Amino acid sequence: MRWLVGWSCAAAGTRPDARGAGATAGAGGTDATGAPGASTATGAYDTPGTPGTHGTTGQGPPTVHPVGARLLWGDPAPLWIVGDWRPDEVRVIRADSRADSRAASRPDSTTRLAVLGHCGASDDALRAGLLAARGGALRHLTAWPGSYTAVAQVGRRLTIAADLAGARPVFHTAWSGGTAYATAALPLADLVEAQLDIGYLAALLACPDSPEALADSTPYRGVRRVPPGHALVLRDGARDITGYEPTTSLAVAAPQLDATQAVEGVRDALVEAVRTRLTAPRHVTQHGPPGPGPVSGSGPYRQRGAHGGPAPGVGADLSGGSASGTLALLAAGLPGIPGTPVGLGTAAGERLLAVTFNDLAAGGGRARESELERARAIAANPRLHHVIVAAGAEALPYAYLNSGPLTDEPGPAIVAAARHRRRLAAGSADHLVGHGARQVLDAHPARLADLLMDRRRRFLLRPVSALARADGSSAHSLFVPFTVYRAARRLARTTYREGLEETAARLLGPGFGAAEAGAVDASLAALTWCRPGPAARWLTGEALAEVSVRLQAAAVRPTGLPQRPGERRAAAALSRHAADHRVFEQVAEAHGQRLHAPFLDNEVVRACRALPETLRVQPGARASVLRAVLNGAGIRELPPGWGAPSHASHAAEARAGLRAALPTLTDLFDAPLLADAGLIEAGVVRDALRAAAEGAPVPLDGLAELVATEVWLRRLLARRGTCWTGTGTGAAAASRQWAVAGGAPAWPSL
């Protein structure tokens, strides 16, 4: 796990001892690999870096610093990086190319930028963006290709930009008279000794894709999240959160690009995103077992020496789906540096390692066989070296739940961690995955209401007709177009406040219905401003009541310019998927490996948002857009059936995993921590697990969320230590005890 952390406190009492430490990056604006500061647990920041008037005891400044950190720059607003950062992933740029020591001694005149992650911009482009941000144009900090976090310091003003999707979030909390920020919530919780926020866990289970219920909270009280598309601006400890994306009013529709131009924009953005990964320096992972560290995400599970490690160079998933196939073909076909370093390749001419996972235990029927056939056909490209990873019951979902890292928050990837790790261990040091393609390219069902609001009724004909055919022909299918149209019209006529209040009342009503039987039911359920998640049916009345209160409060809260329901729901779905992808990275990534999701890059998300709604809602829109992307890159021969849905076998895999792990899961919910917190009734969940294993129509996604949250809580309970060392706030986090509301036993702190 890699993260950055820093803080900003009031100007009064600023200590000049650490001024400019590690801030100068040289005349060329190179990376900060030579920044001072030891990498051991005792010397990451030798000089107190916080103002002397903001100590918690009032007797001097706190001297806490992250364990195993590297200092990028010092007072008055220090910034550290923690974890296994590569040298090319850390770049520090000054506005003035000259390393002016006199300017470094005057904090008010400091103008510098740290870019952490994979960024395809040159030093000159970064410097131009920093100058634009100095004048207030924050969007320039997010307009470069790649996936990264930008931290700009202009005098005493700090700006930390979150990404558009939410895969690179920013968190903040009040601390020591100012504000601390980080790209991970757990270190900030350690710093302020935060308690667990049970209300957030209830909202995450009840309405996972509703930002109104989650708001800006995290699993830790007092630690807040910067919304996607916003930036955290700090000045002398005071914080402000501002959006950097332009907004439009419902009264005047935003101008839409022509469909051809929009698709060309997606092509250019996606090609540039892949090229950014290909032109980056190549890395060879260390196959020896890394030592356990104090940072969340490291530990005994990473002792992978006996199992080998990722191959050197660049690789990609090749599942047979359109998203992973597009990335693999682009990476293999684009001119530039080969994906595999010279001398480490598998054969002459092969540029990319393509990995296909073959589940031998779950089956999957004809749909899965078709995916494998398409993957083999794509892998016939002579530039691809194809590896098929076959696995049995040991790689089913819910396997090996007792081992794994502690992530920032719970996520569905926790229950399939063994499956993901087995696949990614056969991958490369830099591995491309197709996560996010469905969320950025497909039309959310609620966009049908947007078309009605724009009086474009004729564009509803093809999508509703496709829904009528999705579940097979029957007498009921004749009424599907009218049913969907009525639901879309009702949503178009429902205000945002009415939609939230309706969902809040529904949470307090009787139990929720059965699992959604097909595409029509799922689409009808999604035609709303807000809806309960699949796990809500198993929460207690008290937990649902608390979530209902959250929704009622959000309904009366000012939201600025209103959005269309489809636009808002699509953004929420993307944000939720990006958060789940971040958990996936933390739980499945091998030591030294990097997982790249180009579809979640800022520029790719912007290009996809420019696609006209009339194009999005058409059946097969994602496949047609990606086919146009490949055509523009000179790739025109695709296997038959390319672009068909690739999630048909997931239900079979989940049910097979439930059957295999049923005894373990029953023991897990014999005395669950979720029940101690008052969120569930243990017996009800055990009955649901047995019913799902026997084939009953139970929402499997909801069970996965419950299991993942319970496992995450147990790992949090077992954790000892802290991300910080020193004599100030956070040093006692390893020994402090705190209790769950409702009289439950005391749980250890973070």
Description:
- By secondary structure, the chain is of the alpha+beta class.
- It contains 24 helices and 21 strands.
- A six-stranded antiparallel β-sheet has the order 3-4-1-10-9-11, covered by helices on one side. A six-stranded antiparallel β-sheet has the order 5-6-7-8-12-13. A five-stranded parallel β-sheet has the order 16-15-14-17-18, with helices on both faces.
- Residues 12-61, 288-307, 342-348 and 729-750 have low confidence and may be disordered.
Mean pLDDT across the residues is: 82
Q: What's the shape?
A: globular
Distance between the termini: 17 Å
| Largest sheet descriptor | 6 strands, antiparallel
Radius of gyration: 25 Å
Briefly characterize the structure.
The protein has 750 residues and is α+β, with helices and mostly antiparallel strands. It contains 24 helices and 21 strands.
Please give the structural blueprint.
Layout: E1 3-8, E2 65-66, E3 69-73, E4 79-82, E5 90-94, H1 101-104, E6 111-119, H2 123-134, E7 146-154, E8 157-161, E9 171-175, E10 178-182, H3 185-192, H4 198-206, H5 211-214, E11 224-225, E12 230-235, E13 238-243, H6 259-278, E14 311-317, H7 322-333, E15 352-359, H8 365-378, E16 384-391, H9 417-425, E17 428-432, H10 437-441, H11 447-453, H12 461-470, H13 480-492, H14 496-507, H15 519-526, H16 541-555, H17 565-588, E18 594-596, H18 602-609, H19 613-616, H20 621-632, H21 650-668, H22 673-676, H23 682-693, H24 700-718, E19 724-725, E20 737-739, E21 746-748
Parallel strand pairs: 14-15, 14-17, 15-16, 17-18
Antiparallel strand pairs: 1-4, 1-10, 2-19, 3-4, 5-6, 6-7, 7-8, 8-12, 9-10, 9-11, 12-13, 20-21
